[in-house]
Amino acid sequence: MPRVPHVGCAALLSLLAACGGGRQPEAQPAGFPPAPLPPYSAGDSYTFDDGTVDTVVGATGDQIRWHTATGSRFVTSRDVLLPPIA
Length: 86
Known about the structure:
The chain has 86 residues and is an alpha+beta fold. 20% of the residues lie in helices and 24% in strands. It has a domain of 42 residues. It has 1 helix and 4 strands; from the N terminus they run H-E-E-E-E. A hairpin with a 4-residue loop joins strand 3 and strand 4. It is elongated and about 70 Å long.
C-alpha cells in the first residue's frame, strides 16, 4: 500500500486549496494623486525619446500651440502625451 500516502497528500492539498477560496483580498492603500500639469509659455520645448523636439509658440488657458522642427504646427491640451486637438 505505498499509494496511500500519495492519495492522502493529494486529498489534503485539495482541501487546503479549497479553504483559501473564500478569503477576501486586503484593501490596497491609496496611491499618490496625479501630478499637476506644467504651465507652458512661448519658447518652452518638449523632447521625446526619439529626439523629436516640439516648441511652444503660445498658450491660452489649457490649449497649447506648438511647432515642430520641420515647421508643422498643432494644438494640444496641457498633457503633451495626448493626441493633438487641432
